[in-house]
Design goal:
Blueprint lengths: L5 E3 L2 E4 L22 E4 L6 E7 L2 E5 L16 E5 L2 E4 L5 H8 L2 H8 L6 H7 L27 H15 L1 E4 L3 H9 L15 H4 L31 E7 L14 E2 L11 E4 L15 E2 L1
Parallel strand pairs: 1-9, 6-10
Antiparallel strand pairs: 2-7, 2-8, 3-4, 4-7, 5-6, 9-11, 11-12
Helix pairs in contact: 3-4
């Protein structure tokens, strides 16, 4: 990952069996039924918000005349995206620690609570070895985005979250991430083409004080998602393939394009980070 700070931003669809934890508006049988909802991790006070993303088509990648464009951002191509939910904020340490440090299991033992069927399923998900150092690097913990995990760890966290709640959480594909980031826009950033406005929407090298920041302090994009530009870069499902866009059809929209991982590295992160210049925070910017 080099110097990138990476986090997962969970995407979810409904799962029928075993029965999910009851949460209002967390399931839908039709796109028009999709509504925002708040998930609470059972046995904790930790919650996170999910935002419905409407389905549709968009043009992925950057035009050849976009400032600071890189070759791997083209050629542009149309992509069809189904509706899904996406995390309103980057996944925080408050959420992630329950899995990585087994806080949910420890809490049950301290309070002498019997695990539920969902707890038992979640407990079976592989968890990481305890780190040898403070992975926040003294940059902040409560309400700060979780960083420094591998893509595999981010995927395993989503698997644990799925078992814990009964809803299918996963990392978004690269196409889904860009679609959600753009939020219907075609400009370099979701707020337009003027980098002078970046401070209102993102933490980047010029304003971050050389550290990541608490989630949700800047303005959201048009679909209500925070920190899609900057703060910490975000894992997606795809393998990084520099010329992947060249394999997309030009006469019709691609459906669920995914560069299926075939080697251990590299994998894609999106969004740029607190340590990046403005051009790396553009909606189309890729890094692997």
């Amino acid at each position: 990952m080099s110097a990138i700070s990476a986090t997962s931003r969970a995407e979810v669809t409904a799962q029928k069996s075993p029965p999910p934890v009851k949460v209002a508006a967390a399931e839908a049988t039709a796109p028009e039924e999709m509504k925002p909802y708040t998930e609470q991790l059972t046995g904790t006070k930790v919650t996170f918000d999910m935002v419905p993303i409407p389905g549709g088509e968009f043009v992925m990648g950057s035009p050849e005349d976009e400032a600071d464009r890189r070759k791997d951002e083209g050629p542009q191509h149309r992509v069809k995206v189904d509706p899904f939910w996406m995390g309103k904020h980057e996944v925080t340490w408050d959420e992630y620690d329950n899995w990585s440090f087994r806080l949910d299991i420890q809490r049950r033992k301290l309070e002498k609570l019997e695990p539920t069927d969902r707890d038992r399923l979640a407990d079976a998900v592989t968890r990481p070895t305890a780190p040898y150092t403070d992975m926040t690097f003294d940059m902040g913990h409560d309400s700060y985005p979780a960083i420094s995990m591998t893509q595999l760890a981010a995927k395993m966290y989503c698997e644990w979250l799925s078992e814990k709640t009964g809803r299918y959480y996963r990392l978004p594909t690269e196409a889904e991430w860009e679609y959600a980031c753009r939020a219907g826009t075609t400009t370099a950033w979701s707020f337009g083409d003027d980098p002078e406005q970046l401070d209102e929407y993102a933490w980047h090298y010029g304003n971050s004080g050389e550290k990541y920041q608490r989630v949700g302090l800047k303005k959201p994009n048009p679909w209500g998602l925070y920190d899609m530009h900057g703060n910490v870069a975000e894992w997606v499902l795809d393998q990084y393939v520099a010329d992947f866009y060249g394999t997309m059809p030009q006469d019709k929209a691609a459906v669920f394009p995914l560069a299926v991982p075939k080697t251990l590295y590299p994998r894609v992160v999106r969004g740029g980070s607190w340590d990046d210049e403005a051009d790396r925070l553009r909606s189309a910017a890729r890094r692997g």
